[in-house]
Design brief:
Structural class: alpha+beta
Strand order of the largest sheet: 6-7-3-2-1-8-9-10-12-11
Order of helices and strands: HEHHEEHEEEEHEEEHEEHH
Radius of gyration: 20 Å
Helix content: 10-25%
Largest sheet: 10 strands, antiparallel
Mean pLDDT: 85
Strand content: 15-25%
Low-confidence stretches: 1-31
């Protein structure tokens, strides 16, 4: 578990949301960046122990992403797939064809561990695991399938959930946090989640509590017409850092025109301010471009 000091989660009344002078626009809604306790993203973060903060964490509403691509729109193919290594690095995997991406409704993946919810054929998956040399054991009171040599991946499988970890790197406790010790209980993750708003995918960068930018995150939003909007959020240490980050973002938007035309930059004040850049995509642009192609805005935040 990370030993870096963390503040307690602040109530909405303690965070006044105002505009800093000189910024483009001002967001409304008091306490928006606190994080909504009913947020699906926060629910996902609540299944990961807080020591998963050392790497990238990705939440995906896979069912929603599949719906966006059903019209044959392949633009959503990249952002619509779970980010974890379980399906990407183990093909076809010891579960044969019994564990597939289209069975997943929501996924939260970290470095070496993750938790999925959906509809799974647990009996078929476990039969295949057994046939491939996996054995059933007990870890923290839960049935866990793993190889006797400790290689590969360890899994916990039921009809509606799949949890996994990587022996030697992470334990299953990574996806079974103690009360009050999940990523959803870390103030910076709550602030970033509130900033992102209603997204079908959220990618959280590595948590750096001693740096000027504590945490950055990129969210994907889709309207009823399928138009995608990307939201970049940065939780920073103070107002001076917020002004500097906002200025860098505005500079990128200006210098790289027309690549980021229509981008709106705002700041929400609080004990730890949050800078937001809302970037509309055109029909010709691939959702997730700020994550995989047009990296200028995210790099402007990370390199402060």
């Amino acid at each position: 578990m990370s030993t870096a000091p963390r503040r307690t989660v602040l109530g909405a009344a303690a965070l006044a949301v105002v505009c800093l002078s000189g910024l483009l626009g001002c967001s409304s809604g008091s306490g928006e960046a606190d994080g909504d306790s009913g947020s699906p993203v926060l629910t996902g973060l609540g299944t990961l122990a807080e020591d998963n903060d050392k790497g990238v964490v990705t939440y995906l509403d896979a069912a929603a992403a599949r719906g966006l691509g059903r019209s044959g729109d392949k633009r959503f193919a990249v952002v619509g797939r779970p980010a974890g290594s379980l399906l990407n690095a183990y093909e076809p995997g010891p579960w044969a064809q019994h564990l597939k991406a289209d069975q997943i409704d929501t996924a939260i993946d970290a470095q070496g561990a993750g938790h999925w919810e959906g509809s799974f054929d647990a009996a078929a998956v476990t039969r295949s695991l057994k046939a491939n040399g996996y054995v059933s054991g007990d870890e923290d009171g839960r049935e866990t399938w793993a190889r006797p040599d400790g290689k590969g991946v360890a899994l916990q499988v039921s009809g509606d959930t799949v949890s996994y970890s990587t022996p030697g790197t992470t334990r299953m406790s990574a996806v079974h946090p103690e009360d009050g010790a999940s990523l959803a209980d870390v103030e910076e993750y709550r602030r970033a989640t509130g900033c992102l708003g209603a997204v079908y995918r959220a990618d959280f960068n590595r948590f750096t509590p001693t740096e000027p930018v504590r945490l950055s995150a990129l969210g994907q939003r889709a309207g009823s017409t399928g138009r995608n909007t990307e939201v970049l959020c940065a939780v920073v240490k103070d107002e001076a850092t917020a002004r500097r980050v906002a200025a860098r973002l505005r500079s990128v938007v200006r210098d790289k025109a027309p690549r980021y035309d229509g981008t709106r930059v705002t700041v929400e004040e609080g004990e730890q301010p949050v800078v937001r850049a809302t970037v509309p995509d055109t029909a010709a642009q691939r959702p997730g471009r700020l994550l995989i192609l047009d990296l200028d805005l995210w790099m402007a935040v990370v390199k402060v």
